[in-house]
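sorry to bug you again but im stuck and you know this stuff better than me. below you get a single protein, a line of residues and a line of whole numbers that encode the local backbone shape. mainly i need to know what kind of three dimensional shape the backbone takes. anything you notice is useful, everything is just below:

***
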Amino acid sequence: MADLVRSGDEVAVVGGGPAGSYLAYCLGRNGIAATIYDDSHPREKPCGGGITPFALERFPLLKGLPTSYRFVERMLFISPGGREFMASGQRIMNVSREHLDAYLLAKAVGSGARLVEERVLAVERKADYWVVSTRKGECHARVLVGADGVNSVVRRTLVGPIPKENIGVCVGYFARGVERDYSVMAFLKGLGGYAWIFPRETFSSIGVGMDAKRTSSLSGYLDGFVEKYCPNVEKLSRFGASIPAVTDPRFYDIPCAGKDWILIGDAAGHVDPLLGEGIRYALWSADLAAQAIADGNPASFDVKWRKAYYRDLAKACNLARLSYSRAVLELFVILGSRSRTFERIAIGVVASEHPYVGFKRRLAANLPRIALEAAAG
């Protein structure tokens, strides 16, 4: 298969967001032709747009983003009961998704990828190739990659859709006039999610995300949150979307690759189950998928991603079940306001400073210091 791909047969990448574009960019740098099918990117996506220090270091291409970002070094955490604490010590890059996606898509095309601005309606395997159907006709490819988001056509065809219990929802506004130099995470009372304010260069993302079973509460909480924490903003547009929100680690047993196909990013469900952060895993899965294709063995992607970050995603599922209880969130904010050690741990989680695997052990090792600082505070 490697020879077939390198001789000019195409890799079809369905989806031109960060996952699909970065994959095509990596393939192009390896001399492998890729065609991206997407009729919507670049666009402003319902997303906080935070890029962690981990992602910036692992994917240096992000540092070349020419415009529409802002580095924010503090985050205000708000408990369900209204307690607050400000954490600092990590530099997170808040970006416009339209500009980030445009940048990565341009990099992909610049490395040799072809962009077809068409929506993929269906995919079908015939003999030893894939048929990709759009409104204008059919194209063929040797390798098929689904990078087309939570409602992926490719995923639905190959392994079935993401189960409803592993999908979350978010709503919010893109807005101007947020007069603050820090981000906000406000945990929801009894709703298993959080509201956010992420200041950017020219506008901000304000939103609420939670379990899809609680959608009737979303709009009311969003409007109450805006009225309380940023009442005078200029609302540019409203957004709403479904997002992967895996609650059961057994979801990750579903394969994400076969002999001539791969699922990456949101289509694979590879999003942080605790915080909902997806840019890191979009790029990480794309990088690993490009390696698997370059090796002539797309199926090896399943081995690669499981070795790289499966344990962290599974651990985050377990932590999410514990962490979103009201008692834990109230204690989280109390300790953060009284202990510098705990504050560093809290902001380190948001910044992906350490993996979730081993988190409880690290926390336990620091408990004596946290207790002393909290008592003194």
User: Anything to note?
Assistant: The longest helix spans residues 301-323. The two ends are 63 Å apart (CA to CA). Confidence is low (pLDDT under 50) at residues 1-8.
